[in-house]
Hints:
Two copies of one chain form a homodimer.
Chain A lengths: L12 H4 L24 H4 L9 E4 L20 E3 L5 E3 H7 L2 E8 L2 E7 L9 E2 L3 H15 L9 H4 L13 H6 L16 H8 L13 H5 L19 H13 L3 H10 L8 E4 L12 E3 L1 H12 L3 E2 L2 E2 L3 H7 L19 E3 L2 E3 L7 E5 L3 E6 L4 E7 L7 H20 L2
Antiparallel strand pairs in A: 1-7, 2-3, 4-5, 4-15, 6-8, 7-8, 9-10, 11-12, 12-13, 13-14, 14-15
Helix pairs in contact in A: 4-9, 4-10
Amino acid sequence: MPDRTDKTAVKTAHDLGIMRGAPVPPTGRVPFQDWDRAPWNRWTFQHIREILPTTEVWRGSGPVWQLPGAPRNLDDLSFAADSGDETTIAQWLNDDFTDGFIVLHRGSIVFERYMNGMTERSLHLSQSMAKSVTGTVAGILVGQGLLDPDCPVTEYLPELKRTAWNGATLRHVLDMTSGVRYVEDYEALDSDMAITDMAAGWKPRRGRAPTCIWDQIMTLKTRERVHGASFEYKTIEADVLAYCMIRATGTGLAELFSRELWAPMGAEESACMTVDSTGYPLADAGFNATLRDYARFGLVHLNGGIGNGRRILPLEWVEDTRKGDPALFNAPYTDTLPNGAYRNTFWVEDHRRQAYMAIGVFGQFIYVDPEEELVAVKLSSWPEFLSPPRARTFLNAVHGIAARLGGTT
Amino acid sequence: MPDRTDKTAVKTAHDLGIMRGAPVPPTGRVPFQDWDRAPWNRWTFQHIREILPTTEVWRGSGPVWQLPGAPRNLDDLSFAADSGDETTIAQWLNDDFTDGFIVLHRGSIVFERYMNGMTERSLHLSQSMAKSVTGTVAGILVGQGLLDPDCPVTEYLPELKRTAWNGATLRHVLDMTSGVRYVEDYEALDSDMAITDMAAGWKPRRGRAPTCIWDQIMTLKTRERVHGASFEYKTIEADVLAYCMIRATGTGLAELFSRELWAPMGAEESACMTVDSTGYPLADAGFNATLRDYARFGLVHLNGGIGNGRRILPLEWVEDTRKGDPALFNAPYTDTLPNGAYRNTFWVEDHRRQAYMAIGVFGQFIYVDPEEELVAVKLSSWPEFLSPPRARTFLNAVHGIAARLGGTT
């Protein structure tokens, strides 16, 4: 029987020779059409700006929000993987294609690991955690009275009357409960998701695919259920939300993220976002930031909207985010979160508890647990888009860490 | 007769509606294949990272090299344009598609203008001024004993024995006097320069064009004259130089630029470089920096290699750069610089004087005049790749400014 936890099983970008050498030999060159797939994502997720056009989300010129350190040795902490086998934090991080992992307890960094060439300054792709950054800035704008969740999206974007979003509210878009038909299939070459990849400039364009995200939004004219009837994960709703934000403020998305969140939060580094051919920053997946800055973002949520010594996000928005409706939640999402919900672009872990998460494909997580006073961020380059076993193992790990940290204080 | 100096004649990117609006209407979207052409370059030269993949040239975490201010009103200074007509600095800056213009005299900023939406933080494309940045870092490495101008390039890159660079020295590459055939035609679709644009990822690939700069270097096998016989401007020699630097140091180019120049110089902002599909930063044209940081770079040269209170570049290298050989210089370069020369990736204005320049197509200039204690940087988005009349007018302008500044001190 092969040793499932053999440390040599998971190769780093360096081991694999990806983009290594001068010149890089042909076998080490990232093929553009497969940049997000294994094994190439071991390198690309930390080097997005070298693969795609991007725009800066400026950190501003203010001081960094300093995070105190209170190191704890969690490497040897053992917990049960989803398979039932016992593992340790160190072993799991290695096995799970980890690029970075950080745990904050009561506002202090207790554990921080960089792997696979990642450094404190590396900007790592968020994948769909970008939706939660977008939704957080939306919450800030709601607090400023610039957006209203109960408003029809067509009030911000009258053009959407010609699409299936006609009649939907911003609330539906925030919770992904609009009835718009959008096929979120990551593997099919002709799914709506595949078209989004092309429209975003993430993949080479084929045929008559739209050249930008806006143009794709305008093609989505089929409503397959009543708005608000149920949660159905639809990547493009984050972009509809983003366009509402841009239109409501008259401000570009990267500038908005900087002004309302990244600068006031005292981020350590400027973030960046991939842009489509019209310069639109991809709100649904194109965000990139450092491990610690994702942790600061989580901490703003943990602290009820306060970060860097100031209120950034309204408390009501944070409280509302913790109250997703489990009745709208269903398969296949219940595979990973049997008692979960989706609210304000976040995944509620268990509607009977307060923890919620940002999640991105290929293993990205920002976990916020107010009851345990814990934030955990994991950045990865999994071989799989989705893996319920890996996701459940992540949850087991953070539960184990929370128990350890809570038990000794 | 139309008013040649009509301020309305030169439109800004904003006037033109380029990349403006949410969504950007189709007429405002930059067509990728023409991004560097008029009128699109009015916008793209300040937004390269939103168009192309890039890598960061980190400024480091040290303090900024502060440049004192000693403002002078030069707007109304009149001088003769190349046409013979009198104009003023303000009028010329407007007429000449200026994005930024800065003048330093005796180390102080005496004049600084941002136009066409450019700001103090905007990174502007250098075009071929990148070669002079590359050549400057080469000079630093020569000072460290890591590179030797008299060495055959094949000592660093043995693969070049299979190319027309066999037998050429680093000196030939630094001065663009190798005998390698390389057709520097900006308009032809099949010139070597057009292939470089495709290999660099700057233009859509056609046919069997190489997918990276290294692969194009390896295709250049025709020697059309004896190495060292005469200067012939060949963009790709800067890339051969860059690969020698990478190989000699075992360090990537962006990291090398940061470590040896941008960080010690105390740059205000991180710069960036476009990268090809193998992650190679385009040393021949892909550099982007702020107006003031280009000025700091000029000031290092003006000060004989000292900047930010430390020696950055050997004095000998600066002195050598001022001594280009006019006997190797010829048409068409003499159209703009009748007594010019080319040395160490810089253009010597007049071999009887000390001033030298970095020059990039579409109106980029860093002018260093030790005798007048003056640095001038002009960043532009001309409609033309090359314009001897515009270039001569630039020189008239800086001569007029030097006379004004020198005459009153």
